[in-house]
Amino acid sequence: MTKDILELESQKMSSDTFIDEIKNNYLSIVESTRKLIDGRQIELAIKLIREANQILMIGVGSSGNAAREFESSLLRIGIISKTVIDTHFQLMHTALLKDNDLIIAFSLSGSTKEVEETLLNAKRKNVKIISIPNFKLKLATQKKFTWRLVVQAFFRVVVNPIFDKSYFFRSRFLGSFR
């Protein structure tokens, strides 16, 4: 009996330790993400999203999944967007965009040729671009686009201010959300 109690206590301590390790890992991720965030870029991203006539999100592979997740987050707060993960369709959709539209490009590598080609086509049409790579892009790539945002927690940082309950409530019921 005493042995069983000691064993249970040991398991509880190790599970508490495990939970603390997970908590500390997430706190570390949040802190390192915070260091990457430039408040002016976040404000610009929010402004571009709010003012865009159409929002096209692009990405290939895992980056496409991130784009779909962000599309879902925007839809929950009443902003309609479209995610395209096929590179040929990305080019086709971009051909139809205008200067009051927005492309949000997700790229883990920051160097997918087809995505870069799509963004260059969008830039030629003066479409606004938010590029979200997993790490800082090479300087040559950075200069090609309107601006870049390097944030792993982009969804929460951008969606939460848009979703601010008081703003959302006023705008949804007063018709001024978009």
UniProtKB/TrEMBL annotation:
SUPFAM superfamilies: SIS domain
GO molecular function, one term: DNA binding
Domain of life: Bacteria
PROSITE patterns associated with the record: SIS
Domain SIS intervals: 45-168
GO biological process: carbohydrate derivative metabolic process
Cross-referenced Pfam families: SIS
InterPro entries: RpiR-like, RpiR-like_SIS, SIS_dom, SIS_dom_sf
PANTHER family linked: GLUCOKINASE, HTH-TYPE TRANSCRIPTIONAL REGULATOR HEXR-RELATED
Entry protein name: Phosphosugar-binding transcriptional regulator
Lineage: Bacteria, Bacillati, Bacillota, Bacilli, Lactobacillales
Gene: ybbH_2
